[in-house]
Fold this sequence. Notes:
Order of helices and strands of chain B: HHH
Mean pLDDT of chain B: 87
CATH class of chain B: Mainly Alpha
Low-confidence stretches of chain B: none
Distance between the termini of chain B: 57 Å
Oligomer: heterodimer
Low-confidence stretches of chain A: 82-87
Number of helices of chain B: 3
Amino acid sequence: xxxxxxxxxxxxxxxxxxxxxxxxxxxxxxxxxxxxxxxxxxxxxxxxxxxxxxxxxxxxxxxxxxxxxxxxxxxxxxxxxxxxxxxxxxxxxxxxxxxxxxxxxxxxxxxxxxxxxxxxxxxxxxxxxxxxxxxxxxxxxxxxxxxxxxxxxxxxxxxxxxxxxxxxxxxxxxxxx
Amino acid sequence: xxxxxxxxxxxxxxxxxxxxxxxxxxxxxxxxxxxxxxxxxxxxxxxxxxxxxxxxxxxxxxxxxxxxxxxxxxxxxxxxxxxxxxxxxxxxxxxxxxxxxxx
Lengths: 177, 103
């Protein structure tokens, strides 16, 4: 049963991700990425990580993807403007672009090859089964061992917020010119 | 019957997702889709953290995945702000339109 769900979620995640990359309309790309995130949430549940699964839905699908959708609608570019200058949407062209595509394929082959080299380990190592991964256990470790990183994250988010406001603001001198 | 998923299966799935994201960054000519591909890559890494976490029986990987998500949120906010500013200048989302810094 668990195997069935794993392959189901894995197939949905890979298929949706391929469509995200292959899609012309950015709106569909964003919506398909939400499908991919939902499938990954299922995988997190199978991996006994309910906290990450919920955070994935709330932060990724709920906040980040809404931000992306907002920008796509704000800029109102339904079709990729590559079609305007007669080029294909995928950047498969001469020189560095084709090189990039080859690099991505090489990366995939290399990663799979590296994974085949290590012996297939049993999924739960001895002593790994009994550990509880409840929100309480995560919170204890997060606020005890990772307290500094947690506080540093708050500074990072503050900086990102101020930076986003300054970058996206209209230039006040633009009207004079 | 379907094979039971092992740690290697999860890592292979993560590798495939990461490669799809890499291909998207290299191949697409739309700044928004490039950012979306980066999100796919970040999620692939998160899957690795959580899978290894389950394998080792700890919660540290989940906490690092949580930090990755917060960094992804900050990255999306700043990246989209930059995209809006760029779009105001050139009325285009193609990375080929922004070559002022190209040598």
